[in-house]
Design brief:
The chain is mainly α and 149 residues long. It has 6 helices and no strands. The chain has a single domain, classed as de novo design (two linked rop proteins). Helix 4 packs across helix 6.
Length: 149
């Protein structure tokens, strides 16, 4: 028994996890990025949106499973990480084939974007103006270097 005298320890509350909050922002950004910068019918849209969704959803599932199985929590967390890594590679591919550079992690732009996400409980709204007023090249570079890393 745990300290609360219950058989199954408290679990869930994934909304409070920093990893979930970041994954939700990544999903929202990816959805809007695909709408704005990819052509309808491009299979990359489905791949990127699903990878972002999988990252977020597996954090939810892992959090819920944590009450009964630490092993399952770890497996689902690893699936989330792998999905987000796949998404990062899609962004890198997108930049590479268009001869665009990824911002260096210490660039002025990347540092600025990291400051946007440094506050607790950040949502897409914190990034909206930044994302919706940037060119295609700026937006992509930011996603790869400044946020997902």
């Amino acid at each position: 028994m745990n300290s609360n005298n219950t058989f199954i320890p408290p679990h869930g509350h994934y909304q409070e996890l920093l990893s979930y909050q970041k994954a939700q922002v990544i999903y929202d950004l990816t959805f809007r990025f695909c709408e704005r910068f990819l052509r309808k019918g491009d299979r990359t849209i489905d791949q990127m949106v699903q990878a972002a969704r999988s990252g977020k959803q597996n954090i939810v599932e892992g959090s819920k499973a944590s009450g009964t199985s630490r092993e399952m929590e770890i497996k689902l967390t690893n699936v989330a990480r792998a999905s987000l890594e796949e998404l990062l590679e899609d962004y890198r591919d997108f930049l590479r084939v268009r001869d665009r550079a990824v911002w260096d992690k210490d660039s002025r732009e990347a540092r600025y974007v990291r400051t946007l996400g440094a506050r607790p409980h950040v949502t897409y709204e914190a990034y909206r103006e930044f994302c919706e007023t940037r060119s295609q090249a700026s937006h992509r570079g930011w996603l790869c270097a400044g946020y997902i890393r």
